[in-house]
What does this fold into?
Amino acid sequence: MANNVAGAQLSRYGGAKLTRHDFPADFVFGGATSTYQVEGGYAQDGKIIDGSNGCVAIDHYNRFKDDVRLMKKLGIDAYRFSISWSRILPGGRLNGSINREGIKYYNDLIDLLLAQGGRLSGGINREAIKYYNDLIDLLLAQGIEPFVTIFHFDVPQCLEEEYGGFLSPKIVQDFAEFAELCFFEFGDRVKFWITQNEPVTFAKNGYVLGSFPPGHGSTSAHPSAKNAVGHRCCRGVDRTCYGGDAGIEPYIVGHHLIIAHAVAVDIYRRNYQAVQGGKIGITNMSGWFEPYSNAQTDIDAASRAVDFMLGCGARWGSNWRTGVNEKNDRSLTIAKAIKDDYRIKFHQDHLAYVKEAIDSGARIKGYFAWSLFDNYEWAEGYSVRFGMFYIDYVNGYTRYPKKSAIWYMNFLNKNVLPRTKRQVEEIEDDNATTKRKKGR
It folds into this structure.
């Protein structure tokens, strides 16, 4: 038996007293989202090959300019986001059509981030291309560095139906083409690429527990598995798992994920890196395991658990949990819902351990809070909230800063420049307005 341990002893640093100045000058502080969980844009052109629509999520697609302004107020250096495969390539591959609007969106976001003084962590549908270009350009214009994830669990439905997505080796070539299209369209501005988000999580939750798309596995394997289906559309679906073989499929999927990652990295290094000057890696879900006892079986179990969790690329971006969620209690007023002191403590404690690890010689280069905004969760939908900004799903998707957003801004901006004090006052004024707002 392996025991997943975290925080067994307190850090010698007091997290509440730390600021960004306690970290190396080149340490990157950012925030993160994923395309399907925040963008929405279901009525926009190109997401599905037949022109049908996806979900609203938090409507980031139509509100990204305002969201980037919030990022600027926070003072983050970087924004990690993903690019929608099916928005860019509705047919799943280059012999379909490319969505230029999707590309423009990301260009605007990246340019806006950079203009705010930071660094970004992400046939053809040309509208999608335009959309992502707009987003990227906007981020860069605001001085926020884009960190772009190419794949964050959203396999195009057409490829899932045609050959089973990552269950088939055919996915490798199609993923490589999508990745190269991203390098070609955005790589002149995007300098930090993540091929895949948490491949182990995708294989386990999607093909063992059935709680993530495509929802394979047994409904008895996980209590939320019965709610796993239908992530790619808003229409009502039979919310049960699709079946599959949980003893085989996750290993097949994991194999194809690793190959697809390697092929994409090779393409970037051979054809783009020398000219574009960027970096590329993978993000792994990270954890540590200790034997439950001194028995050899428990020692072996802990070793296997570490291998499964970290074995497919721990040299690159390991994704230690940097967020905490709470139940979406709809009985709470907004003024009460934004009081998330537990989230502040989580980040303070985590950063204290990060500081301690750096001082001990660990090469930790950044911290991306998950998530900047409440969003649509793969298994839980809108029933939980992860964000530093509260999303009012009932009244126009209005954003309200939680106490954690105020804390993060103070942590990042304390004793930096006089202008940052005005930024704090602006967002605290927003918070005061929120407190005066009547509950729903």
